[in-house]
């Protein structure tokens, strides 16, 4: 059946209404072309800012060519889902060096599965009404998600490279549906409202935001604690503080996040008190406990040894204590080379702090 223009206009509104029913705060539709953002990605890769994330370069072409990823794609439906838990203790935890700071997005259940399921349900609903071919993505394929979301009116890309919405800040996930339906396009609503603000650049612990809109992943704590599979550069370890999985500093200081709302999605609520746990407590988990407590969590992807690696750095940056030293010594027997190196580094740091 061939739809008319008015029918596609109605369908687009229905998609947005259905999106709210599935828990999305904002749905927008853009063309399936994004050369400006593809060019920015190309320049970023040429500067080697992607570090060891070789998949970024290997699949670069697909990011600029949605139809090659999903045949027939002419529109991208972008969806926003807020995730900020009621976590008033974020800065409090950062200010306590014996606590473990875990990025807010990773405190609850893994967002990939939840959002992909909701988007797939939305795609099925679209197909049932209008037919067509649709495919859902959630940070799982080479998609220029922030670029498409910006085009679709969900916000603007800020100086920290995050997508920012003037009514919701940046504490949200993005997902997409590639479709071959000629849906009406939403105009960009917001562009470049960062102005002269430099908060994110000035407060980045490792100086990873090397210039406005440019992040060198090789210095970013999120990259170092999650993506990097080898040793964390020694010169960066003291700058990481107690951040053991990801980093939220550029969001914590962003003025636009005063408009962020706590999520109503229960699956994003903190589990196992990960929003307020001691470094020592988490470091002393054995592998069985780690796997049990991170089941269904984004944290599990780094594996037990990198979990120990990250926490060892946090302990090395914490105040010297007999309990911390004993914990580090105790876990040496469970550590493989990647973790062991950082445990020994941490012991040296605490030894120097404890020296008279």
Automatic annotation (TrEMBL):
InterPro entries noted in UniProt: 4Fe4S_Fe-S-bd, 4Fe4S_Fe_S_CS, QueG, QueG_DUF1730
Keywords: 4Fe-4S, Cobalamin, Cobalt, Cytoplasm, Iron, Iron-sulfur, Metal-binding, Oxidoreductase, Queuosine biosynthesis, tRNA processing
One GO MF term: epoxyqueuosine reductase activity
Binding site for cob(II)alamin: 63, 139, 160, 163, 174, 222, 247-248
Comment on bound cofactor: Binds 2 [4Fe-4S] clusters per monomer.
Binding site for [4Fe-4S] cluster 1: 194, 197, 200, 254
Record carries keyword Isomerase: no
Keyword Oxidoreductase tagged: yes
EC number from the UniProt entry: 1.17.99.6
PROSITE patterns assigned to the protein according to its UniProt record, in alphabetical order: 4FE4S_FER_1 (PS00198), 4FE4S_FER_2 (PS51379)
Compartments it resides in: Cytoplasm
Catalytic activity: epoxyqueuosine(34) in tRNA + AH2 = queuosine(34) in tRNA + A + H2O
EC top class named in words: oxidoreductase
Pathway: tRNA modification; tRNA-queuosine biosynthesis
Residues involved in [4Fe-4S] cluster 2 binding: 204, 220, 247, 250
Residues binding tRNA, per UniProt: 229, 288
Organism domain of life: Bacteria
Cofactors (names): cob(II)alamin; [4Fe-4S] cluster
Pfam family, one: Fer4_16
Record: active site: 139
Protein family membership: Belongs to the QueG family.
Subunit structure, as described in the record: Monomer.
UniProt-recorded name of the protein: Epoxyqueuosine reductase
Species the sequence originates in: Zhongshania guokunii
